[in-house]
Design goal:
The protein has one domain (2-336): Rossmann fold, CATH 3.40.50.1820. Helix content is 41%, strand content 15%. It is built from 10 helices and 8 strands.
Length: 337
């Protein structure tokens, strides 16, 4: 009798473990979907998770050069915390989405507003998904993705989201001491001068070269493991590789940044709680412009909490564990509040 009960108990435990394992595997599955963005550009996004999380759903807007696949680890972390599904877009001209120029390595956009248009269609698809928690939907954005998220919300409204998390947002580019006005003038002259550079020429850097892509001296992360993971994916999937930005991309980005920092524009998103994670050692975007933006949000009656991550480089959510965990903790506290 005792043996029989033991066998039944073991069978029940085995069944439960298999069920839990199956559920966990199912929840961590990902699926690539696509739609037509502005001017029929094919835009791809990835859905992580198959069920509604008990704490809500999350949309992620990546930075320049990034694909949705780079956010696999973060998406799984969010799912384990209780947020699902997690949707990550590949912005036009990068990642898994269509490139805009014959040279696939050029980071280009002809009009920054096209990013907003694409993102609006993306959100329509997210909200139509039957397992999306439409009443608890959060927007998390990094670097250029932060500029896109901010401009999108200012253009299409904030009522679809419960909160905005900005990680090292590109609210201003680090122009190495030059003013935005001066660079706008330089790009205008470059684009208009006969026999001069084309607007789709590189503004800096060039095609991606794997030999130059080294962990030592990189400005993005102090985590060699996460750095090598991204590079390995680029080696295995060359279609993800992206080089420097074009003159037109720089010009469009600066124009968009100046516009989105205006008090009249900030007022449009003042009803949405904002968490801004700032990397102390960021040399890619302007921390002073982030400070200005957050201060403006609070001045117009909004709620912007700026949290500095000491010693962090630009990619806070791809940083070493000690630094990354600080960012994750701030995000969890913000969302769960």
């Amino acid at each position: 009798m005792m043996l029989k009960r033991t066998m039944i108990f073991c069978l029940v435990v085995t069944t439960v473990l298999l069920t839990v394992h199956s559920y966990a595997f199912d929840q961590l599955a990902n699926k690539n979907l696509q739609f037509k963005g502005k001017n029929d550009v094919n835009i791809v996004f990835t859905k992580f998770g198959t069920q509604t999380g008990n704490l809500g759903s999350v949309v992620i807007s990546p930075g320049r050069t990034e694909s949705s696949l780079k956010y696999e680890e973060l998406s799984f972390d969010l799912i384990k915390e209780g947020f699902s599904p997690v949707f990550v877009i590949n912005h036009r001209g990068q990642g898994l989405s269509d490139r805009l120029l014959k040279n696939r390595h050029k980071g280009h956009v002809s009009d920054f507003n096209h990013y907003y248009h694409d993102f609006n269609i993306f959100i329509e698809h997210v909200r139509k998904d039957r397992v999306t928690d439409k009443n608890n939907l959060f927007l998390l954005a990094h670097s250029m993705g932060g500029a896109i998220a901010t401009g999108f919300l200012q253009t299409y409204g904030t009522d679809q989201f419960k909160g905005l998390i900005l990680s090292s947002p590109m609210l201003g580019i680090n122009l190495n001491g030059k003013s935005e006005t001066r660079v706008l003038l330089e790009t205008l002259v470059a684009c208009k001068t006969p026999l001069g550079p084309e607007c789709n020429d590189y503004a800096q850097d060039g095609d991606y070269v794997s030999e130059d892509d080294t962990f030592e001296g990189n400005n993005n992360t102090s985590s060699q493991e996460r750095f090598e993971s991204r590079k390995s994916r680029w080696m295995n999937m060359p279609e993800l590789q992206l080089g420097g930005p074009t003159i037109r991309w720089v010009r469009e980005s600066i124009k968009a940044n100046i516009k989105m920092r205006k008090a009249s524009k900030v007022q449009l998103i003042s009803d949405l709680p904002i968490l801004l994670l700032q990397a102390e050692n960021d040399v890619t975007v302007s921390n002073s412009k982030q400070n200005q933006f957050c201060l403006t949000v609070n001045k117009v009656g909004g709620e912007c909490s700026l949290q500095l991550i000491p010693n962090a480089k630009h990619e806070i959510l791809m940083e070493s564990d000690q630094l990354r965990n600080q960012g994750i903790d701030y995000i969890m506290d913000f969302i769960k509040d």
